Amino acid sequence: MEYIYTSDYQAMSQMAARWVAREVLRNPALVLGLPTGETPIGMYRYLIRLVEEGLISFAETCTFNLDEYVGLGPDHPQSYAMYMKAHFWIKAGLKPENINIPNGIAPDLAEECRRYDAKIEQAGGIDLQILGLGLNGHIGFNEPSHNLAIRTHVVDLTPETIKANARFFSSMDLVPRQAITMGIGTIMQARKILLLVSGDNKKEILRKAVYGEVSTIVPASILQLHRDVTIITDIKI
Ligand SMILES: N[C@@H]1[C@@H](O)[C@H](O)[C@@H](COP(=O)(O)O)O[C@@H]1O
């Protein structure tokens, strides 16, 4: 694991954007795995700036989002599809046919998971997967558990994650209890992984993920087994 420490959130975001830009310059047809959450917003903003300055282009890039809430359609304000439209997809200049995210309102969710995996496979797998870190150590929505699913699946969110997600909803009752997420296998098969972590409230969980035992109880600890992980963070551990 390569650990890049930056002084604060802005520096982390800028460093992450440059790091991703370098990968896109090397391979404009990159298959890019994308996260949501608060952490990557700054990186998305810097990446869009690089696009606007004509320094990089996502015109040939294909993207796969990590996850989506079950029950929220792409036009729901709190859906991850809406988040991506607001923060990245449109201004980054991605072609609509190159954008992928699980459909949280698919009539047959198991079939939707299979379709998503097949699409990732068809694209040749993920070249670069960008990840955030949940407060309980989840990546994507792979929650702490005794067993981790390998492929895209429907997951019951833990009370801790539901509580953490509540900040984006007007009432606790509206917070989705389930999500569709890429599995740990798909994430681990990405050729490169970039993990972004910000804020001292994640210090303990980051320490466990990086130095702790590899355990399904801290899903991010599995990343210790991947051969090409870079962590960009403003947390000194
Ligand atoms: N499913 C997402 C994760 O992909 C994200 O990494 C995590 C951390 O979010 P934040 O960056 O807001 O702390 O939140 C959600 O649960």
From TrEMBL:
InterPro entries: Glc/Gal-6P_isomerase (IPR006148), Glucosamine6P_isomerase (IPR004547), Glucosamine6P_isomerase_CS (IPR018321), NagB/RpiA_transferase-like (IPR037171). It catalyses: alpha-D-glucosamine 6-phosphate + H2O = beta-D-fructose 6-phosphate + NH4(+). Coiled coil: none annotated. GO terms for cellular component: cytoplasm. The active site is at 67 (proton acceptor), 136 (for ring-opening step), 138 (proton acceptor), 143 (for ring-opening step). NCBIfam families: nagB. Catalyzes the reversible isomerization-deamination of glucosamine 6-phosphate (GlcN6P) to form fructose 6-phosphate (Fru6P) and ammonium ion. PANTHER family: GLUCOSAMINE-6-PHOSPHATE ISOMERASE (PTHR11280). This is Glucosamine-6-phosphate deaminase. It comes from Sporolituus thermophilus DSM 23256.
